Amino acid sequence: MSGASGAALGVIADIHGNLPALEAVLAELGRRGVTRIANLGDCVSGPLWPRETAELLMARGFPTVRGNHDRLVGTGDLSEVSGIDAFAHARLTDAQRAWLGALPMTLTLGDAFLFHARPDNDLPYLLEEIIGERLLPAPAALIERRLAGVSHKFMCCGHSHLPNIQRLASGAIVLNPGSVGFPAYVDVNPPHVSESGTPHARFAIVTGDAIELVALDYDHAAAARRASQNDRADWAHFLTTGRAVRS
Asked: Which long-range contacts (CB under 8 A, 24 or more apart) does 87-91 make?
């Protein structure tokens, strides 16, 4: 369950343009000697540093799958793109948008099967369900139904921003490393919130049969200031607290 050669695998997801969080995570992975890194998508959308984040990711060349926001920024009709996706789209270069749009929906990296939300759809949650307008862990039986026909024994997903490890009846392991750069959010379709509860940058390290979920402190105040400067007080709150704000 190490992704390929047996060397440790770092798993990151949902950066959302948070450059200082990404830099801190990559520095920590480097400090631990982890050089193999997989990225589960939603790379740049947000009122932070989309262009600089794309530049760093493209330079590093990590195996990366396309998230729903990457799809909208990279391949979507601009007339249908709004909010954080429009912010990112306007600041990326043509080459960066093309890179996002060309990312695959799934990847196999050794024994690790990578995707953003579900293998066949980048929007619905896999490990969670919406109950009382909150994202809560889904029962294992429901997760197994959602993965019907998928035979991989080790799977990595993102999308919900909530770190989680689930072992299914089949013996398969599903890992969500949590979000590098966006610890809480409010969604409106349908209405619900996701909250990690702290401002930490989240990622995972897979070594053999061991999985470590990591919550890393970084300069989240700088990210919050950037969001405020770009007129997103809600994001500043999410980034500072890891808690969502209900309207």
From this structure: 87/45, 87/46, 87/47, 87/50, 87/230, 88/17, 88/44, 88/45, 88/46, 88/50, 91/50, 91/51
User: Under a CB-based contact definition with an 8 Å cutoff, are residues 5 and 110 in contact?
Assistant: yes
Structure token pair of residue 17: 């343009």
Helix (H), strand (E) at residue 154: strand 154-156
Domain membership of residue 1 (yes or no) is: no
pTM of the full predicted structure?
0.96
Domain count, the chain: 1
Q: CATH number, domain at 51?
A: 3.60.21.10
Cα dihedral 215/29/120/95 (nearest 10): 120
Residue 240 phi, psi dihedral angles, 5° rounding:
-80, -35
| pLDDT tens-digit map of 180-198 | 999 999 998 899 999 999 9
Residue range of the domain that includes 91 = 9-241
d(CA 96, CA 166): 34
Query: Is 3 a member of any domain?
Result: no
Question: Tokens 């343009």 sit at which residue?
Answer: 17
User: How confident is the model over 60-89, as pLDDT tens digits?
Assistant: 999 999 999 999 999 877 766 779 999 999
